[in-house]
């Protein structure tokens, strides 16, 4: 199994005191590690036989396309409000410091299709949970949520639809 931990930099006190920021920049700058990470995500997704891989703006975008290519399927992007053209569906969710909104295009042909969602971090589950609801509103079926990192003490996986897998877990 791929050891993601050695490719993550930690920044205690960022963006505010009491928070540790887990930075995936070292992973992204190492071709071998990045390749192994994409392969590990693809292997986690493969048993679900997805029709699509969905990624969340912004860091989820770094992984959704290569994972989709590895599986020979299409990719779906879920963006921050105001970033997608055409008719969209919006889903707002709570953050520690306010509220945010994600959007997906209404005209996606995913009704009855199996979707695996990919993002970089699972913390409280607000962002990925909102993305799950957007996929469902378009008629898609969430099979699994894949993340690079999960902060287990925040219990975000309890808010998600489908199975949840993380390549690396930390308490906080």
Give a verbal description of the structure.
α4 links the parallel β7 (about 115-120) and β8 (about 140-150). α2 crosses α3. The chain is built from four helices and nine strands. It is globular. It is an alpha/beta fold. The chain has one domain (about 50-170): Rossmann fold, CATH 3.40.50.2020. Strands 5-6-4-3-7-8-9 form a seven-stranded mixed β-sheet, sandwiched between helices. It has a two-stranded antiparallel sheet with strand order 1-2.
> How many H/I helical runs?
4
Instruction: List unreliable stretches of 5+ residues.
Output: none
Shape: globular
CATH class term: Alpha Beta
In the sheet with the most strands, the strands line up as 5-6-4-3-7-8-9
> Hey, roughly how much beta strand do the residues contain?
35-45%
Mean pLDDT: 96
The topology string of helices and strands comes to EEHHEHEEEEHEE
- Helix percent band: 10-25%
Category by helix and strand content: alpha/beta
Report the CATH architecture: 3-Layer(aba) Sandwich
Briefly summarize what is shown.
This protein is an alpha/beta fold.
Write the layout of secondary structure elements.
Elements: E1 9-12, E2 20-23, H1 25-28, H2 31-45, E3 52-56, H3 61-71, E4 74-80, E5 88-95, E6 98-105, E7 114-122, H4 126-137, E8 141-151, E9 163-170
Parallel strand pairs: 3-4, 3-7, 7-8, 8-9
Antiparallel strand pairs: 1-2, 4-6, 5-6
Helix pairs in contact: 2-3
